[in-house]
Amino acid sequence: MCTFVILLGGDLVRTPRLDAALSGARVIAADSGIRHATALGVTPELWIGDFDSIGEIDVEPHADVPREVYPEEKDSTDGELAAEAALARGATALVLAGAFGGPRADHAFLHMTAAIRLAEGGKPVVLTSGLEEGMPVMPGRSEFDYTDGTLFSILAFSPLSGLSVSGAKWPLENVEIAFGSSLTMSNEVRGKLRITLREGRALLLARPETHLPSAG
After folding, report:
1. Residues 6 or more apart from 215 whose CB is under 8 A from it?
2. 176-209 pLDDT tens trace
3. What CATH number corresponds to the domain at position 154?
4. What are phi and psi of 200, to 5 degrees?
5. pTM
């Protein structure tokens, strides 16, 4: 598997879990996401964007990173361009680091919907701020290796059909979730978290504790 980490402009806290995700991965920075490179101890192989958001960021430590510069008026965000560049370089899995928070709520929302679109195209995606982690929930059965007590929500981006959740404080069995329902918010892991979905688009959002999750 060829994993690329995309450094985005949102919030990011370095944790052992994030370090594990970075291990062996290739890195591309999207515009102001370059500011995370020094804190994470990584050197991106590419820095991409319109460079309208770097502001007071000290760019000197990254002067040797190759750049792809785009005009401010374009049809894609810097993060989307960075993900496309990773896929063109052979990425089979993506970690969107700095996907949450930041100055633009619309960008954070786009990162979540883009992750679902990429997952539907067969590319595993993890979104992370270090403290929070998101993973698309695809139709079928998925397992997530989180420790007991981990808080999680299932965010529905459409009506959900045939949703079952086990290994949770509040399990569900083959339920229908209306778009906009809060039924799948604020749950807790109890054992092995398993999610089955017959139809719909959703994202698991968790606050992980110790080790990396696996989905399958």
Report:
1. 124, 135, 142, 143, 144
2. 999 999 999 999 999 999 999 999 999 999 998 6
3. 2.60.120.320
4. 130, 175
5. 0.89
